[in-house]
Amino acid sequence: MTQIALPLDTALSAKDDGYIVTDVNAQVHGYLQNWQSWPNLTAILVGDSGSGKSAMALQFEQDSSGYIVDNAEMMADADLFHLWNRGKEERKPLLLTSAKPISEWNVQLPDLKSRLAASLLIEIDSPDEAMIEGLLQKYFSLRGLSISEDALSYLRKRMERSYRNVQLLAQQMDNLAIERKKPITRAIAMEALSQLQAMVEKPGKEPEAAQNIEEG
Residue 200, Cα to own-chain centre: how many angstroms? Predict the structure, then answer.
């Protein structure tokens, strides 16, 4: 697995399973590479769905031979506490990922609460323009398509900056391009954004992302 530095001069290949690094997550990337400095060798990675948590965790596991737990808030307190102790004994780092802040984990075990509180908290911020462009380029390149610079320029000034919105817009543009048998141009981007905004504003019609561009 590799990390992809932006700007992207060429389309990503379909075999590429790395994650994109821009200013918005460069510090996160640095923390994961320097796990030796983590307090108690434990870190908690929090970010929205599609922000790359799972891909980052897999890269970390590969680099460090440590332990990872995706959606850590769903793991039983006793099991998570046991894994924390195991990592401590073996001197292996432990990375926990979640889309929820720790305050919403509903941890009941006091000893586990104290250990989580003493762990390094790493948060992934909302995507910047470079991340949005990279994610859209990645989405379409993995499908053997491309998105025009005009389309990217139009979207970067108008779309909501969230990982979920990137996923929804990419899917909407993909559907329109297939339906019209046309490339992803500014016109496709305009129509996709208009349709998505209409769906969001319509009561009971909250759109759902079918697939993450980045894992996690």
Answer: 22
Residues with Cβ within 8 Å of residue 85, at least 6 apart in sequence: none
Residue 6: per-residue pLDDT? 34
Helix/strand/coil for 147:
strand
Q: Which among 125, 104, 120, 139 is positioned nearest to 215, based on CA atoms?
A: 139
| pLDDT the model gives residue 45 | 97
CB atoms within 10 A of CB 107: 19
Q: What is the DSSP string of 156-210?
A: HHHS---HHHHHHHHHHHHHHHHHHT--B-HHHHHHHHHHHHHHHHSTT-----S
Residue 92 CA, distance from chain mean position: 24
DSSP H/E element including 140: helix 129-141
- Alpha carbons within 13 angstroms on the beta-carbon side of residue 210 total 7
Q: What's the confidence (pLDDT) of residue 62? A: 92
Closest C-alpha to 166, from 25, 50, 47: 50
pLDDT in tens, 44-92: 999 998 899 999 999 999 999 999 999 999 999 999 999 999 999 999 9
The mean pLDDT value for 168-188 works out to: 92
Structural tokens at position 158: 């108008």
Total Cβ atoms within 10 A of residue 140 = 22
Closest CA to 190 of 152, 160, 139: 152
| CA–CA gap between residue 126 and residue 137 (Å, rounded) | 18
